[in-house]
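Write out the bound-state structure for PRP.
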Amino acid sequence: MLTIAMPKGRIFEEAVELLRQADYQLPPEFTESRKLVIEVAEEQMRFILAKPMDVVTYVEHGVADLGIAGKDVLMEEERDVYELLDLQISRCHLAVAGLPGAKMNEIAPRVATKYPNVASTYFREQGEQVEIIRLNGSIELAPLIGLADRIVDIVSTGRTLKENGLVELERIAEVTSRLIVNPASYRLNGGAIERLVDRLAAVIPER
Ligand code: PRP
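---
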């Protein structure tokens, strides 16, 4: 039996749809219940539902063989997991945003983000020294109330930025969801994992 860590939230529905397209028979309770462990005996699979940032932790520790994680999380976390497949779902990008026309504070520029590693690497590469302020969500709030000059966050439709009067200033990286695997589990269960990869890969080009 393979254990797969699934990210709760916006990626979840697309990931379930992709598995169903690959002909995995997932019961209705999958998208309806609040259970956090769902076993699908017929498919020899067990799913655990975790916060997106925690999926890599479950896979790294080997309690899940596989996981579905956004490239944003993989860039931020840099964990000991292999990336097997770009699932090409939940497409979005990481960007720098701020209030239109607002300059960076020259003495102590501040950047608010849920992605402190991605943000500090990016600004270092730009040769800009900034203070990173870590937030857990609603990042767009930070420039509105004067906590930061810039934010680094995910942009999907661009609606959150627009409705809060912010503009995208720089694009950092494209993001899609990836299938990740625990390296030891990959060595042990290579056959079963390769079959899963093949079935998913076969439905990706249709999308
Ligand atoms: C994400 C991201 C942006 C928003 C972007 O937040 O942090 O706030 O979605 O989407 P959009 O471009 O389609 O508006 P999420 O809803 O995941 O919640 P969070 O604020 O708790 O991070």
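---
The first helix runs from residue 10 to 21.
The two ends are 28 Å apart (CA to CA).
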